[in-house]
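Q: Give me the 3D complex with S-adenosylmethionine.
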Amino acid sequence: MMTGAKSVCASHHGALDPQRRTAWPLETSPHPMQLTISPDNPLEWIALRANMVPVPLLHAQIMPVISKAVLEAADKGVFDAVAEGHITTDAIAQHCKLNPKATGELLGLLTALDYFEYHDGRFTLTRMARKWTLKHEPESVYGMMLFNNRVMWPWLDKLGTYLETGEGIHYHDHLNPEQWNYYQQAMVAASGSEAKEFGRRAPVPKALRREQRTQMLDIGGSHGQHSVALCKRYAGLASTIIDLPAAIEQAAPLLARLGMGDRVRHVPGNALTDDFGEAQYDLVLMSSLAHHFTPDQNRDVARRVAQALKPGGIYIVNEFIRPETGASPELVGSSTDLFYGLTSTAGNYSIAEIQSWQRDADLRTGKVVTYRTMPGRAMVIGAKP
Ligand SMILES: C[S@@+](CC[C@H](N)C(=O)[O-])C[C@H]1O[C@@H](n2cnc3c(N)ncnc32)[C@H](O)[C@@H]1O
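A: Here is the predicted complex, encoded as structure tokens.
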């Protein structure tokens, strides 16, 4: 049935569509991974093509409910309750201190969304839910769900004002310590699987393979997962993470549990004003921070990074990429663009824009690595001659 939430699904041509259980041939892929409305039969396909389906109703009525339901389920411990063996509606409601009728409604929606399977009055977690929603699973996005539910959700109310004024909320300026903690936990959750791919596929200067002692600077590096991934791959590499003091207060224990000791260390600072030094780093990474800065600020960061790089060193801007308006739809890049506008007044940038900051800093550009596990993200590389 196309008109249900079940039809609003992520499909990846080339992967298994989770709702339809259909393998799509790789070579038919016109776009990267997309959130789409996916008809279940030829009649629905025709109805969709004939514009008989009220698509905006799905966006306006179904999607907000889906998002909030998933966030509340995580926050109320519903996924973990099922993992711990509370598998009937009443047992889940009792364990999570929820109303049984309301819990039944929530579980129905989450089952339609493929978080649960349901047989004979019992719920079990699907493979997808087990990997991504549980509090203590290594790649879980639980931290992001908590942050989005407790800190970010009220920000969305301000989207109308942002659209009128163009002025975002600049959350880095006024989070309280508890919110900083949710934020840093969210960053761990958001970048856990990405950091693995970054560690495997990030282009590195030859020095990292050849020399015994090499240095990395990780600007806005927070939890340090990207630094750790590279340091595990290159035994001679050590990394300095510069981040805001309030972030480091919360991120320090998150980095400590990765067990890298002094090889990956935090230094409090401000990327907008600090001098990064002179010819001292082989590699500089700035991951998911350019979208909080204006073009001029990013150009200035690139200039100071270029100064701080050794000859042959590289600067990786790891970012969500803003798709050109009218290009193939890419929901991750375009929705995060609006979201970072709302939250920081800045937003995403195109690859060409990022490369222009690097070229203005006399770095050589050309290489761009897109992620296989995350649409809309790329490493944009500038190299110091
Ligand atoms: C979106 S998070 C990205 C974290 C990490 N690099 C990643 O990719 O997962 C942005 C980080 O930049 C930090 N940050 C924001 N403004 C900064 C500034 N002016 N100087 C240094 N760090 C900053 C934040 O505290 C936060 O830890």
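A quick observation: The mean pLDDT is 91.
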